[in-house]
Amino acid sequence: MSVLLPASEAEAEAIIGEAAAARAPLAIEGGGTRPTGRPVQAERTIATRALSGITLYEPAEMVIAARAGTPLAEVEAALAANRQRLAFEPMDHRPLLGTAGEPTIGGVAAANVSGPRRIHSGAARDSLIGIRFVNGRGETVKSGGRVMKNVTGLDLVKFLAGARGSLGLLTEVTFKVLPEAETETTLVIAGLDAERGVAALSAALGTPWEVTGAAHLPAEPGDVSHTVMRLEGFAPSVAYRRERLAAALAAFGPAELLEGEDSRALWAAIRDVRLLAAPPGKAVWRLSVPPMEGPAVGRRLEAALGSRLLYDWGGGLIWASADETGDAGAAAMRAAAAAAGGHATLVRAGPATRAAVAAFTPDPAPLAALARQVKTVFDPAGIFPAVFDAA
User: Residue limits of the FAD-binding PCMH-type domain (predicted)?
Assistant: First the structure.
């Protein structure tokens, strides 16, 4: 497969316009760190690596814009120099997927990549305030801006966030950012089962103490479970809130504390799902369900598939493993998620499994029809990957 590296929007327009005229499919690649979904059947890949560089950074206005191929690490380093950060804590998929390369800021927006802080600060799409992209006609489109404002008409920023390149090639993204926390502390309650662990997380999230991370790590061989809640902010505020939160959760057991770097290391591991990185031959699924339904869903998966689990977002996000045989657990995963009113996404599997198993829960027919209409508007020749399936 040949790789095309446009260095400007004009070059991207020419490549995409030519592909549209020939009705020749294009695969889209950022840093190549997130090969999820069905493998794209295309002879050529258009990659954003040459579309790189921060185009605007106003620390006082807390806004940053960068070309889509800019390494995420470059954006985060620029923000860290001014004690700022991306609020949504984007996951690094490399430990879980075993990939190399560098995640890009465009890839983060295209896949709506969000981490544990989503429960407090929202997803990537909630911080994304402006985009530039080339649609399937070879036209550059600009949407949004560099300030937060009310939207009238079609909100293309939200349409493109999470569309995974199915509607167009992102060329530039603009994010609102937040100040970096002065310090953080994590409260750890050991030995709870999933039901009690998620109940503790729900209780913590229901307090006024601004929990920015809430996860339950089930027991592993030779260890006990850990229910963890993160507090961030100015040191005096964190000290006050951790005492109040520990008192509010006393019925669940005593809380130990992880401070500073130890806390950051724990949440980086949760963010990147390192608990399920090994063994690499297992399929890994991501289930979104109502938080209080999480333990029941987990029990079904343990019984049906022997899944190892990790609960994030207060129990509403479940990472689950399955043997990569047959449908890699698809039927059981989707049945368990649907029974709870949620959905399941295949995140890690080999190419053969990804070709055979739909990565995303198929849409109901009316929604799928609407999605096809939207795609036809953006990509009439159908040259970009169609990543979602119909039921």
Answer: 1-180
pLDDT at position 153 is 52
Across 262-294, b (16+ Cβ under 10 Å) vs e yields: ebeebbbebbbbebbbeeeebbbbbbbbebbbb
Rounding to the nearest 10 degrees, give the CA dihedral for residues 375, 378, 380, 386. -40
Quote the CA–CA distance of 315 and 116 in Å, as a whole number.
Answer: 11
Q: State residue 66 phi and psi, 5-degree precision.
A: -150, 150
Contact present, 361 and 288 (Cβ < 8 Å): no
Q: What average pLDDT does the segment 23-42 reach?
A: 88
The DSSP call for residue 104 is B
Domains of the chain and CATH, by start:
2-179 (3.30.465.10), 183-271 (3.30.70.3450), 274-356 (3.30.70)
Listing from the earlier edge strand, what are the strands of the sheet with 309-312? 256-259, 183-190, 226-233, 211-217, 309-312, 317-322, 283-288, 343-348
Token pair of 369, please?
């029809």
Beta bridge mates, 183: 233
Separation of alpha carbons 110 and 123, rounded Å: 12
Q: Give the integer Cα–Cα distance in Å for 290 and 312.
A: 12
Summarised one tens digit per residue, pLDDT across range 41-84 is 888 999 999 999 999 999 999 999 999 999 999 999 999 999 99
Q: Flag whether the pTM goes above 0.90.
A: yes
In whole angstroms, how far apart are CA 182 and each of 83, 179, 191, 231? 9, 9, 30, 11
Instruction: Give ∠ CA 276-278-284 in degrees, rounded to 5.
Output: 45
